[in-house]
């Protein structure tokens, strides 16, 4: 049972519980944003509101969890692994199937909500390569922060690869709902029909 502020804010279980507890608030936020946007005459108000809240609700808890400090945070220097797939192979060989599965799936989910909802919210990102680049960039920032803040975590290129892959797979899952931005440029506007001679 979570009994202290540290238990709520500084542990994996606490973050999961907070995420579950605020789910109704997230749903209420979607409803309120959609209602406000519909009143303002915004098209796709529900879609846009769901995407806005989904990106935040689906990403913040995962980033929060991977930024939790380890037992020796501040006492040990940051560790970096830049050889691709080395950490993955170590996890599979030393950690066992359950540990490896949890680790891989967890990394795939970190930016999955961003990958799923960002193309729905921002048509300019409606491309799997763009989502991969965005997620990889976000992951590099998180890994760098782990190193700089000395959180007793390993900053690994494998984490970046898995985070980006998860976002890319989520983007593919939402692809059927992507849409292009309506083009309002003058050269694409409908031209009046030419007058027919009499």
Observed structural traits:
198 residues; two-stranded parallel sheet; 3% strand; globular
Written overview of the protein:
- This protein is mainly alpha-helical and 198 residues long.
- It has helices at residues 5-9, 12-21, 23-39, 45-66, 86-109, 112-121, 128-148, 157-173, and strands spanning 79-81, 154-156.
- The protein has a two-stranded parallel ribbon with strand order 1-2.
- The protein starts with a helix and ends in a 25-residue tail after the last helix.
Write the layout of secondary structure elements.
Layout: H1 5-9, H2 12-21, H3 23-39, H4 45-66, E1 79-81, H5 86-109, H6 112-121, H7 128-148, E2 154-156, H8 157-173
Parallel strand pairs: 1-2
Helix pairs in contact: 2-4, 3-4, 4-6, 5-8, 6-7, 6-8, 7-8
Quick overview:
With 198 residues, the chain is mainly alpha-helical.
Q: In percent terms, what proportion of residues is strand?
A: under 5%
Question: What's the mean pLDDT score?
Answer: 87
Kindly state the number of beta strands: 2
Helix content: 55-70%
**Which stretches are poorly predicted, pLDDT < 50 over at least 5 residues?**
181-189
Question: Radius of gyration, Cα only, in angstroms?
Answer: 22 Å
The largest sheet has its strands arranged as: 1-2
Helix/strand/pairing class, anyone?
A: mainly alpha
Number of helical segments with 4 or more residues? 8
Shape: globular
Largest sheet: 2 strands, parallel
Compressed to H and E, one letter per element, the order equals HHHHEHHHEH
**How many angstroms does the end-to-end distance come to?**
86 Å
